[in-house]
Specification:
Oligomer: single chain
Structural class: mainly alpha
Number of strands: 0
Strand content: under 5%
Helix content: over 70%
Largest sheet: none
Distance between the termini: 27 Å
Radius of gyration: 20 Å
Number of helices: 7
């Protein structure tokens, strides 16, 4: 039940951050995030490394908002996304994938009315969360392999990354499917 409350609060917080339109409130949320990081014992270096990884996507979203609207809105979008990414990393540090799957399972119990099995939803979340580091590692291996061959990563050479990456994803998905079938889960 405690993990269900954490998931619900994270979702409410993530949605609520995007309704904040004051720089003072964003500063207060950033301070709150620092307190949560300290409470979850998340090392600041780990948080900075994570934010560095998602920074291109955050900056792209900010640039799009700068082009579309006033500069203040673009800066707010960047700050909101950075705060939400930092909070999700703190949450991920405090809750393991099994606890998250159990919370999602509890959260999805009312969906039994529509014949959705909560256990399946929890399993899907658990597999997705466990899959992320594997995909990151595989992407890095492909990228390093191409760089070792002297290729630079450019938009026209993305096909050399995507083809083996997607092949690896489908292969792993098939392996997981076969494992679930072998254990008579489905």
């Amino acid at each position: 039940m405690k993990n269900l409350i954490k998931v619900f609060l994270l979702a409410a917080y993530a949605v609520g951050v995007f309704f904040v339109s004051s720089f003072w409130a964003i500063g207060a949320l950033a301070l709150f995030n620092l307190c949560v990081m300290a409470f979850a014992r998340l090392p600041p270096k780990s948080a900075l490394i994570y934010l560095r990884g998602v920074a291109p996507f955050i900056i792209l979203a900010g640039l799009i908002n700068l082009i579309i609207g006033p500069w203040q809105e673009g800066v707010l979008v960047v700050a909101r996304l950075a705060i939400v990414c930092n909070m999700t990393q703190s949450f991920r540090h405090a809750v393991n994938s099994m606890q998250l799957a159990n919370a999602i399972e509890t959260f999805c119990r009312p969906l039994k009315i529509f014949r959705v099995e909560p256990r399946d939803a929890g399993l899907m979340v658990c597999i997705c969360v466990a899959f992320i580091p594997v995909l990151t590692r595989e992407f890095d291996q492909i990228k390093r392999g191409l760089e070792a061959k002297g290729m630079t990563i450019k938009p026209r050479t993305v096909k050399y990354i995507l083809k083996p990456f997607l092949y690896g994803i489908f292969k792993r998905t098939d392996e997981i499917s076969n494992a679930l079938l072998a254990k008579a889960y489905c």
